[in-house]
Specification:
Chain lengths: 398, 398
């Protein structure tokens, strides 16, 4: 007898490529030894948290003799942490933001789920440029939403704005962008975003129903070559930003993020009331108490990003020497190269796997013909993987 | 233009009584001074965490120089914490449980949401004895489910098993019980649960589709007068248990709980695979890393429950002296008395409010004519509230 719903049973059968690679990686490491497997599959930020995080933990420990020390707080989060974060975001987004315009959430993933629960009617559509973070399909599907990806232009990965314009219907509830992008590392330009905002304003007026612009930006802090991620919150009335401290504070497992709304949004108070409620009723209640307190103490600190910059260069060298085509990531910690020899991406990932190299096929991100390799792994592993990757690429070109 | 979905906009309008009281309480405390308001509205466990929690935090702080110290873990939780918890639950539930039969979740609320996401088809019905924890309607409604409460028998609050039997249809997916119960403090007996299991087995066979028995038991540890909460996981093949450490470790804000399944469930592996996935795609990813580590270190510790026992006695004295009818709670930290003089519960709560006493109407728990008062507040407040409550009761009887 069926214990799972049809949708979840089906989703498990298709499964996520990233998780499948994670599991294959565990098996291969057990078999061949961890040092002989080059695992570029999972984006698990591997730098230790900045020192301010440990200092905050010790300080929190000293307060636990108080009643309610780790008890429930308001569903939007501790007011003083919200206020502090609002000040930082106001500068970053060049927007008059207060603590009333953001809630603390269980990572960016929690922010997106709370937002979709609060705003989607069943059958609503969410447009996104592809390649896209594979979980978006699940987050929207949790509440009856349907993802409508629009392929960007290889190899620059600029958005196909005409394509997005054409994909918007009366059922479109949001467009979601992720910049710096997972998996392709692109940072969308201010000009692209302004054009996108104009398209959304046009359709919102025509539909008589807001189409939200969602900016999912856990990698905003992580760019290279002085690339700046343009502010987005204030460029369009119905913009919301989801962010997290998984990467810059290396807190992925502790689940601290936020959802912020443009203070100039008509009915912004209603939206914030809605997401505050859905933050509660989805079971999050709020972001975890200790994570919130850490954020309050460590906001502004970050991991040593120069380590990621050096790894990016090492990875670029390996790919170049293997004759693999790619565009240099402007941010985040992923390469999204083209499968060599015009090969199918899954077939090429199999060739890599035969060399003990784990990568994720682009099909998993709605973009076949490409593959993703993370560089949040030891630089030594990146450098040692060179010959194996070159052999796989040579085999693909044969 | 409508920024919220119709369902959420409607839910906010109805709002939760508990939250409304919370907000009213804040206003009243600002106006009259906190010491002049008797706030029995919100069940925010107010004892400090046991000393093991602070010790665990300091120990965790010492490990943060390691890569991935707070990074992603498997979506079911850290394997060693799962294994440790499984051992404890196996003893508690008298059931052969391993770490594979439970996942760590964002509190019991996260466990229930992950479970409903994994198992519900839109339109599925969930039966529960009333009074019931008000959030159940939201948790099921998040995924298209519909709650079907069946009133228990006042004042003992024994389940109406014939009524539950009659409420089950082809669309019933689960029955959810909460014991010790919020709001009424009842502990269901082994006999009642066995009879309930037999009813579910009969309908499951008839429907050809499992009807789950969900036991939501964050208060299992908190009983009085040597009452024991009977084991439930093994009494019926399709049982799952949701629990949390919000109350016994005073960690409500840090969000650590679990979902465990009967190891003897047919397809238990499929169910666990499903909830592991929904734990991820709802944005929880897993329980928060620090909370999991605290649990691993502090499991078995608990707050000083004798404090709750003394408060219960003080509260019983206040109610008795006011001439208010109630059944003594066997567990948890709530009284659920009858509104005196046969008065409407909301009207009586208004009378209490006029005396600066905050309580929640039973209508908010699907049980009109009664009201809830928590006793997880200072004993001094309970004792000082006596005259005010007596005045309100006298007014109600006039």
């Amino acid at each position: 007898m069926q214990v799972l719903s049809q949708q979840i049973a089906g989703a498990i059968e298709k499964s996520s490529w990233i998780r499948r690679m994670f599991e294959t990686g565990m098996e291969m490491k057990a078999k061949f030894g961890a040092e002989n497997v080059y695992d570029f599959s999972l984006g698990n930020p591997d730098l230790p948290p900045p020192a301010a995080v440990a200092a905050a933990l010790v300080e929190i420990a000293g307060t636990l003799d108080q009643p309610l020390a780790l008890g429930y707080m308001p569903n939007g989060g501790y007011p003083e942490v919200r206020a502090k974060l609002a000040k930082e975001l106001a500068a970053e987004q060049e927007c008059e933001l207060t603590g009333q315009h953001l809630i603390l959430t269980c990572g960016a993933a929690g922010a997106l789920n709370a937002f979709f629960r609060a705003t989607l009617e069943p059958g609503d559509e969410i447009v996104c440029p592809a390649p896209y973070f594979v979980e978006y399909g699940f987050y929207t599907g949790n509440f009856g939403g349907v993802l409508r990806p629009v392929p960007s232009r290889p190899l620059t990965f600029e958005m196909d704005l005409a394509g997005i314009d054409a994909a918007i219907t009366a059922k479109t509830r949001a467009v979601i962008v992720n910049s710096p992008n997972n998996p392709c590392g692109v940072v969308y330009s201010a000009e692209e975003l302004a054009e996108l905002a104009a398209i959304l304003a046009k359709h919102t007026a025509a539909n008589g129903r807001p189409i939200f612009l969602i900016s999912d930006e856990p990698y905003r802090f992580l760019t290279y070559d002085d690339v700046v991620v343009p502010p987005i919150l204030g460029i369009y009335p119905y913009t919301v930003v989801a962010g997290s401290f998984s990467k810059n504070l290396a807190l992925a497992g502790e689940r601290v993020g936020y959802l912020a709304a443009n203070p100039a949004m008509p009915d912004v108070a209603a939206l914030m009331g809605g997401v505050t409620m859905t933050n509660r009723i989805l079971g999050f209640v709020s972001a975890p108490a200790i994570g919130q307190k850490i954020l309050g103490a460590a906001l502004g600190s970050e991991v040593d990003v120069s380590i990621y910059a050096r790894r990016r260069d090492a990875m670029a060298k390996v790919l170049t020497e293997a004759g693999i085509e790619f565009s240099m990531p402007q941010g985040a910690f992923y390469f999204f190269p083209k499968a060599p020899g015009g090969m199918d991406d899954k077939a090429f990932v199999d060739l890599l796997m035969a060399e003990n190299v784990l990568a994720v096929p682009g099909s998993g991100f709605g973009f076949p013909g490409f593959f993703r390799m993370t560089f949040c792994i030891d630089q030594d592993v990146i450098e040692r993987s060179g010959p194996a990757i070159a052999r796989a690429a040579a085999a693909a070109r044969q």
